[in-house]
Write a structure and sequence with these properties.
The protein contains 8 helices and no strands. By secondary structure, it is an all-alpha fold. The longest helix has 29 residues. The radius of gyration is 17 Å and the shape is globular.
């Protein structure tokens, strides 16, 4: 009985939760910068940075999520400086939207999580393409082909991550 109480206390401790989330984010960064380039680097590959942003954003206030989005966007803009600032704005909007949406939707539902990962990826890609000054045909191909493919891949990766690490992420999965 004492071991159960200790395990419950450890699982509920804010410091322990932060450490677990930090380890999950470190895993996502490893996947993004080590595993993803090792695989076929296609535009339909899952985006682990946006996945990390969304997992953090649903646990934060909208302001904190926007700042987190700014940091993630700065990181992506530094790596792809062709349209500097577009990634920052896109990630700020997605982070703020995910944190705000948490009040409306139940984050404990697996389908809602998958939809959040898909929509977050698609919206981020749409904003970046719109701000990059792409032609109408490029915009259509991005919004109708590549963004949905990447959104689906990111949603599948996110659902697998949530299922595997739901105790660490403190997400109760309801059917």
């Amino acid at each position: 009985m004492t071991a159960i109480r200790t395990a419950d206390r450890r699982r509920r401790s804010p410091r322990g939760a932060r450490v677990r989330i930090a380890l999950v984010i470190a895993l996502l960064l490893l996947l993004e910068f080590y595993l993803r380039p090792s695989l076929i680097d296609g535009r339909g590959m899952p985006d682990f940075l946006i996945l990390g942003l969304l997992l953090i954003a649903i646990r934060q206030s909208p302001g904190q999520a926007a700042v987190t989005g700014l940091v993630v966007g700065l990181l992506t803009d530094v790596l792809t400086p062709a349209h500097f600032g577009a990634g920052m704005l896109a990630h700020v909007i997605v982070g703020w939207g995910a944190a705000t949406g948490r009040a409306i939707f139940f984050a404990d539902n697996l389908l809602v999580n998958a939809l959040l990962f898909f929509v977050g990826t698609w919206v981020r890609n749409a904003i970046v393409v719109l701000l990059s000054g792409a032609s109408l045909s490029q915009l259509a191909v991005e919004l109708l082909v590549w963004s949905p493919l990447q959104g689906i891949a990111t949603a599948v990766a996110g659902v697998l991550l949530v299922l595997l690490l739901r105790d660490w992420l403190a997400i109760r999965i309801e059917a």
